[in-house]
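Researcher: Please translate sequence to structure tokens.
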Amino acid sequence: MSEAPELTYEEACARITGPGSPFELAVEDVNGIEMPVFKNRFRSLREVLERSVEFGDAELAVWDTGERWTFAEHERLVASVAAALRERHGIEKGSRVAILASNRPEWILTAWGALVLGGSVVAMNGWWQGDEIRYGLDLAEPDVLFADRRRLDRLEGADPGVPTVLFEDEFEAYADHDRTAKLPDTPIEEDDLAAIMFTSGTTGRPKGAMMSHRNFIAFLQMNFCNGGLKYLMNPPPADQATLPPLVGINSSPLFHVSGFQSGALMGPATGLKTVWTTGRFDPKKIMALTLEEGVTRWGGITTQLWRLIEDPDFEPERFRQVRSMGGGGSAFSPDLQRSLREKLPQATSEFNVGYGLTECGGLCSMAVGAVLEKHPDTAGRTIPGNDVAIFDDEGKRLPDGVDGNICVRGPNVMLGYWRNPEATAEAFFEGGWLRTGDIGQMRDGLLFLASRKRDMIIRGGENIYPLEIENRIDDHPDVEEVAVVGVDHRELGQEVKAIVVPKSGCSIEPEALRSFVAEKLAYYKVPTYVEVRDEPLPRNATGKVLKPVLTGEAENTFKEE
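Model: Translation complete:
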């Protein structure tokens, strides 16, 4: 019997998304724009949860704190929390529930409780300090805030200005409110707001990306479809049935779109068991849980994967069950890719790197297996269900091989920025194309990044806009000028460096300046390096600091006339 001929990527896409296929694409109106969408899809996240009970007593979540949920138990807990939210706080369709906490079981239950009521989740960054927390609360104006003690303490006793529930002391009453409660039946539309996910903006202040039920479901469907594509193009070996079931492990923050979608939403949608870690990332904990819980997939940002495979206790032979690896955030260097393949060769075909941003649901393209091995610098192929294209600054589409603005369009793209119509208008080209802010080009169906959001620093998967740090350093009484840039780092991708010029007659101690920044900003924004120089910073004719000159990427060709 002859083997079936290998499919090209285009042939596989046509087969899996064509008429009558599992992931059939149909053109529909999405907020006034005609675009392809998956015909067979959930219409709300509550439908996802309702369907999840079909997995019954199979395990959905295992926490390193000892808590375990089956799919059925998770649904019952969510129903109880939803009933408590409605009866204690009046949460209903259109309400906003803010969550300020590290990863913990209560985070997920609170989020799902809000979602099934038709409310929305305000996912507040757990690394924010007091001023940042206050800003987020003032912007979102939630109806209730759920927080852990450590983060609430950062307000230093100040009134949050909103009813507040402390997870450690008060949440048990929500989980036990009514274990016989049914999920609510409030009508939920696809384009209803599901979450406000914060992302840094060019002004240095976070912006709230408005994510709808449609956006999150598109992410789920795109992942399902991409899995089907991989299966078509690389059929599993004959002994696939003998392999253990897929089990993931998640250490990504739930307040990040990737952690929320891949962790809190993916499990109920797919039947996937997820092992959750709390607290700081600990490679030894990851390795122990992998062996104890049968984890088959490792994912994360560059930093985490480096720390795993370079830990003194990492023994490749003990982790042959891990057959899938992937992630996003900071760039996956060829060095890291090579190390992963050498140490975990059984996962080579399932090694994948995704590209996206919060505003498009965290994912729009992916490089997998052989494609990534051949082109380690690619951001991959566009995932069916959305479209990626390159435009010039005037909104004209560019041909292959030409650098320009990377733009995304699809049902995965956000509604806009919360209470910021100006930023929303600036973010889109005509026709619903989201401007990612990244520069790149398409070549032979593959996306290649030339730069990431120009000045933006990506440290360990965290997006950092220099202006926010520069504004803080400018407040220092002894600083005349400042520029913040990113410097390469093997594990983190980049580190933050501040270049400062003191005022005449003043001196600046680097450690004191770092402490000054840390008083107001999250730890990951505090400069690792501080360079003090006497000469003025190089500037162009408009007064803008020439950062490529500071980093040595360019010569200063500007001559003042």
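Researcher: Any highlights?
Model: Residues 58 and 198 are 33 Å apart (CA to CA).
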